[in-house]
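Ticket 4471: requesting a sanity check on a complex prediction with PRP. Repro inputs:
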Amino acid sequence: MGLVIALNKGRILKECLPLLAACGIEPDEDPHVSRKLIFSSRSGGHQLIITRSADVPTYVENGVADVGVTGKDTILEYGGAMGFYEMLDLGIGRCRMMTAGPVGVPEPAGVLRVASKFVNITRTFYQQRSRQVEVIKLSGAMEIAPLLGLADTIVDIVDTGNTLKANGLEAREKICDISTRVIVNRASMKTKFDEVREFIDRLATVV
Ligand code: PRP
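Returned structure tokens:
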């Protein structure tokens, strides 16, 4: 039958292709070269869908893809009805979800203006702290928001910390650790149990 596997464009795709190859799943063309977005595997009858990170859970939740590979940040931000199981931590793409603000500038006492593209993660984090916030949705480059006076704080992914440093910001509170995870559609878990199990087991041995 074969599995339909949804992958992020970018870093995750680059890191995942060797892992998939070690599991015997290789696309029929190089996704880094081809402009195609759906690839067949050379063997096993699998399909690889290359999509934007935020859309991986959507494809998996709706059963269009059986399996998805994406960051924990994307899964947390998606929330959703959870029509999928998180099955495996690939241990790659490790980073942290942090709050950050301008170096040496204390946070204001009143309503905190927080810029992020992770608005759900941001709201949940501050709700748990009973901290009143105004969440400002951005699509990226959050680091410039405090510099330009759009926000007091940002919520973003921090890896080396170089981006924060280069923009005069400092990491403050850690919200959670992030890494790349494998998710499986709930129905596929039943209807394609053997294939899913074999895929997850193989992947677990190569990571
Ligand atoms: C992420 C994040 C930061 C940067 C942090 O952006 O949004 O900007 O990496 O990494 P560092 O701590 O090593 O400097 P990414 O490059 O993934 O692009 P994005 O803006 O599309 O999220």
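Notes from triage: The first helix runs from residue 11 to 22. Leaving this open until the requester confirms.
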